[in-house]
Structures are given as structure tokens and as C-alpha cells.
């Protein structure tokens, strides 16, 4: 995908073209010997698609999304990111991590580095970009998420919403093929949730392939192409947002929706 560095486009150019970027097949994972956390989860995400992953607390959402960039090993099944298999092969894991951007609930910025350095670190060290090129790109990304005027501040000097927007810019700086979000607004004060969702919305509109764990129903309804529902380590539904919210098939889904809607 040609990566747009300009202002985030408000027109929806996200056309999914059935080129799979993420292919997870029958992924099974145990924590230790006994705790079976993922029980044969399969998911294909095509280029430009936005998939929202929902499910009760403890259902395995974070575990699953972390397997998609090699942060969690799995024992059975297979995962491919744009044709590269995530295996125990460390080289492959390095390749995949470069291609997969991740945004966490707790921002995970480097507290001792300025905003600008947080964004330029990985492109300089992992992509071999020169400092000046990296800074130019970082400033464009920071402008895109509305933080360019705070580039020389430290994370601790920013609000939670601002820090999360920096975390998104930092992930984008690696020009990832897919962005993973694990409850990116759950740690934010309510008044900061929308500013982060707005950045995610714009990113989706620009054509980014995204997998988002979130309980934000409005975002899922408006932005998601598909909603995936995970419960007790099983993938229970994989459907459109309107089917998911208006016409859920499974009892487990109905119960979950009655608790969040
Ligand atoms: P979710 O994100 O849907 O809330 P998680 O993937 O975080 O679920 O967790 C799924 C289950 O796995 C939970 O029961 C959790 O306690 C357990 N779990 C998560 N991480 C670990 C770990 N490192 N070791 C053992 N159990 C874990
Ligand atoms: Mg979680």
C-alpha cells in the first residue's frame, strides 16, 4: 500500500481487495501445561479490512492478538503475516514484528525519550533510516495525529490521550502492513477516548489493515468491516457489525451484548 503521509483523508478509500495479510489457522495455545487459552482460532484479514475483536474479559483476546506479532508463542496451528510464517524461527519473528504495528492499553512509550525520539527510534535502528529522514517522517506522523507541537516533550508531560496518539504515530513510523490495537482507549479518561478513536477512524479510512480489540460499540458499528467474537478461547462469531449487534446468532454473544449495550 502506498503510505499516505499527508493529512488523514476523510474520504473512505479503504477498498478491501481479498489479498490476505493475516492468516491464522486453528491456533491453539496453552499457558503452562494445563491452561488451554486459545482453542483453534482461525481468522483471515484481507488488505484494507478493519476487524474488531470483542469478547468477555479473560476470553483470550489479548493473547490472540499478541500471537499475531510473535509476542506470544502458540503450540498448534499456523499464523502467516503477508506470507511470512510466524514460527519459532527468530528471524521470521523479527521480520513479522517489523511489519506489524501494535498499540497497547498502557501506551508503553519510553518515558526517558522525547516524543520525537519515541517515534524515530525504531525506523533508525530497525529500518536503517537516517536521523534526518526519520525525523522528517516522524514530524509528519505527529502532525497526522495532532501532536506535532509537542514533539520535544516527554511522555509524562502529555495527557493519556496524547500519549496514545504518540504510540499510534510510533507504530506507524515502521510503515506496518497491519496495525493491532489492544483496548487502546480502556486506560483513558472518558473525555480522551474520542480523540484516539478519531485517529483510528482516520487510519481505517486511509486504507490501513487493522485488528482492534475494543469495547467501543460506536467505533465497531461505524468502522469495522467485521466483528469477531471470542469466548473461552473459541472464536464464536465472525460477521458484519450489523449482524453482530442486531442479530447475534449464539447465546454466548447475546449474553455478552446484554451486558455491554
Ligand atoms: P482477554 O484479553 O480477553 O481479557 P487474555 O488473553 O488476557 O484475555 O487472557 C486469557 C486468559 O489467559 C485469562 O484467564 C488470563 O488470566 C490467562 N492469562 C493471560 N496471560 C497469562 C499468562 N502469562 N500466564 C498464564 N495465564 C495467563
Ligand atoms: Mg485483554
From TrEMBL:
Residues 22-257 form the ABC transporter domain. GO terms for molecular function: ABC-type amino acid transporter activity; ATP binding; ATP hydrolysis activity. SUPFAM superfamilies: P-loop containing nucleoside triphosphate hydrolases (SSF52540). Gene3D superfamilies: P-loop containing nucleotide triphosphate hydrolases. One of its GO terms (biological process) is organic phosphonate transport. InterPro entries: AAA+_ATPase, ABC_ATPase_HisP-typ, ABC_transporter-like_ATP-bd, ABC_transporter-like_CS, MetN_ABC_transporter-like, P-loop_NTPase. Keywords: ATP-binding, Nucleotide-binding, Phosphonate transport, Transport. Belongs to the ABC transporter superfamily. PANTHER family: AMINO ACID IMPORT ATP-BINDING PROTEIN, PHOSPHONATES IMPORT ATP-BINDING PROTEIN PHNC. This is Arginine ABC transporter ATP-binding protein. It comes from Chroococcidiopsis cubana SAG 39.79.
Amino acid at each position: 500500500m502506498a503510505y499516505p503521509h499527508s493529512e488523514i483523508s476523510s474520504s473512505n478509500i479503504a477498498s478491501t481487495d481479498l489479498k490476505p495479510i493475516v492468516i491464522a489457522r486453528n491456533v491453539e495455545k496453552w499457558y503452562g501445561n494445563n491452561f488451554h487459552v486459545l482453542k483453534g482460532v482461525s481468522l483471515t484479514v484481507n488488505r484494507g479490512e478493519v476487524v474488531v475483536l470483542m469478547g468477555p474479559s479473560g476470553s483470550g483476546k489479548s493473547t490472540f492478538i499478541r500471537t499475531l506479532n510473535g509476542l506470544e508463542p502458540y503450540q498448534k496451528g499456523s499464523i502467516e503475516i503477508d506470507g511470512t510464517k510466524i514460527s519459532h524461527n527468530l528471524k521470521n519473528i523479527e521480520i513479522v514484528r517489523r511489519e506489524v504495528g501494535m498499540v497497547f492499553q498502557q501506551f508503553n512509550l519510553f518515558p526517558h525519550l522525547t516524543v520525537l525520539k519515541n517515534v524515530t527510534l525504531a525506523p533508525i535502528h530497525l529500518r536503517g533510516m537516517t536521523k534526518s529522514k526519520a525525523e522528517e517522517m516522524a514530524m509528519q506522523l505527529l502532525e497526522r495525529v495532532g501532536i506535532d507541537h509537542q514533539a520535544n516533550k516527554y511522555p509524562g508531560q502529555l495527557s493519556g490521550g496524547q500519549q496514545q496518539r504518540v504510540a499510534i504515530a510510533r507504530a506507524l513510523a515502521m510503515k506496518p502492513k497491519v496495525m493491532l490495537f489492544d483496548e487502546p482507549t480502556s486506560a483513558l479518561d472518558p473525555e480522551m477516548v474520542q480523540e484516539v478513536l478519531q485517529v483510528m477512524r482516520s487510519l481505517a479510512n486511509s486504507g490501513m489493515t487493522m485488528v482492534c480489540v475494543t469495547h467501543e460499540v460506536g467505533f465497531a458499528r461505524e468502522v469495522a468491516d467485521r466483528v469477531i467474537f471470542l469466548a473461552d478461547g473459541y472464536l464464536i462469531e465472525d460477521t458484519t457489525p450489523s449482524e453482530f449487534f442486531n442479530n447475534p446468532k449464539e447465546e454466548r454473544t447475546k449474553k455478552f451484548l446484554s451486558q455491554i449495550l
